Amino acid sequence: MRFLVRDRLLGIGEDYWIEDEHGRKVFLVDGKAMRLRDTFELKDAHGRVLIDIHQKMFALRDTMVIERDGEGLATIRRKRLSLLRNHYRVALADGTELDVSGKILDREFVVEYDGGLLAVISRRWLHLRETYGVDVVRDDADPALLIAVAVCVIHLAEKEREHD
Fold it and tell me: How far apart are CA 128 and CA 156, in angstroms?
């Protein structure tokens, strides 16, 4: 399953659609304005909130939190002891972890679980400006979660670049 995501994703207060590879509107990203922290909702085509994304307020390092139905689903932060700057750890609520690595700012990276590929994020095969694709490669993977992970990792990498 391939999804097309606009690159200017994290404009606070900005809403926009994520489409599937056939141009159908699948998810709505609802950016919440007037909040102390970056907050977004990922909604289905009928307006139901699937995932809440927000920045963790009092973390030592920049951290994003993904919630579903008010319950913590995942916490994302840059991997500490990695020689690669573009390496992030996604700690899932069930105790498992996803690994995100690649050229985050170039929108060329992968999401892996236990050494197996879950999703490829890339601009390479797209002709639309300021758009990247999230290609979910496993049928049993949660597309909404993987899109939320991609959004969070890009947001964290861009914030880190601003502070350098």
Answer: 24
Backbone angles phi, psi at 156, to 5 degrees: -65, -40
Q: For the whole model, what pTM was predicted?
A: 0.86
**Three-class SS of the chain:** CEEEEECCCCCCCCEEEEEECCCCEEEEEEECCCCCCCEEEEEECCCCEEEEEEECCCCCCCCEEEEECCEEEEEEEECCCCCCCCEEEEEECCCCEEEEEEECCCCEEEEEECCEEEEEEECCCCCCCCEEEEEECCCCCCHHHHHHHHHHHHHHHHHHHHHC
Contact 22, 11 (CB under 8 A): no
For the stretch 37-86, pLDDT in tens is 567 889 999 999 999 988 876 655 688 899 999 999 999 998 876 655 68
CATH number for the domain running over 2-162: 2.40.160.200
Domains in the chain: boundaries: 2-162
